[in-house]
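Protocol step 4 of 6: record predicted structures for both targets in the notebook before any analysis. Target 1:
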Amino acid sequence: MIAANIGSGDVLLWLVEFFLFLIYFWLLVVVIGDLFRDHELSGWAKALWVLFLVVAPMFGILLYLIFRGQGMGRRSAASAREAQDRFDTYVRDAAGSGQSPTQQIATQGEGARLDVIGDRVYVCCGGAPVHGPP
């Protein structure tokens, strides 16, 4: 029986190990993401950092955080600011001309007050046909 061999301390130890593995994996992803986001670092330096992270991952993460940790925050903030600016530009472009709803209705003219059903055109709110076959 598996349950007979596992005590409550084993489960707690397994949870701590799993949590530490998640932290390690998260740090590895963050460091590699920051490494490739940095435009000031040359390709060869990036390759050396990645090689160092593959050969000695724990030591590599620790050294990266010591030597390049301050720049991580600046690069992350700049990336977030750039993404927000792109989003704001997209929203402004998608929203249209920037006219108020009153101005948009005024510029649409008579076409906004007519409904076209089949071959007949009706004035809004159930008026008589303006033109079309009887």
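Target 2:
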Amino acid sequence: MSQGVSFLLTFRDIKPPEDKETGRVRPYILKFSKNGMERYNANADEVEKRLRPGGRFEQMKKWGSKFTGATVRLAGNFHVAEHYNSDPWRKKISENTLETAIQFMDVIADHSTAAFDQMGEDEVMERARVIWEWVTGKWIVRTGKMTFTNRDAQQNLKTRYKTWKVIKEGIDILVERYYLNDLTPDKTRGKLYEVNPKALK
């Protein structure tokens, strides 16, 4: 395989044949075997499902939409590395080679998903910090109140955060970490929060 990788690194120096009539270069074309094509279609369908709401790529659609194409390109590289010494363009990409590429991309997807999740967590933490600064630096100072409602938060933070859902994600972090107490009575639509006095010390 190491020789195959070396071949890939120098492959750019190999010129495809030219069309005798037009003089244009005819690129080498790699094709899937019958089983390889079936596996490709199955994988493409699976990726489409991952892009749907609730799917693995829901929060990273731009990245996920490139998954199938990247897998195909990777399979092509694996194929060339495997058949580097026998004109790889004369053979079709096998199902096994494509499966190897899919498994490789799945590992990359795991790492990418973790990275996107971390970025999401960082954004929510930043939101929590902004909300805490608003509560302690503006709300308490201006109103003298240690409590606020969801309407108070929306009204005062609407220029920065457009929806209550976004604001609530930041507030939930503050509640989880005992900076705020959720005083909302059961079966009440509105939300009521209290600043934990210990968090101000």
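Step 5 preliminary note on target 2. DSSP finds seven helices and three strands in the chain. The longest strand covers residues 192-195.
Proceed to step 6 after PI sign-off.
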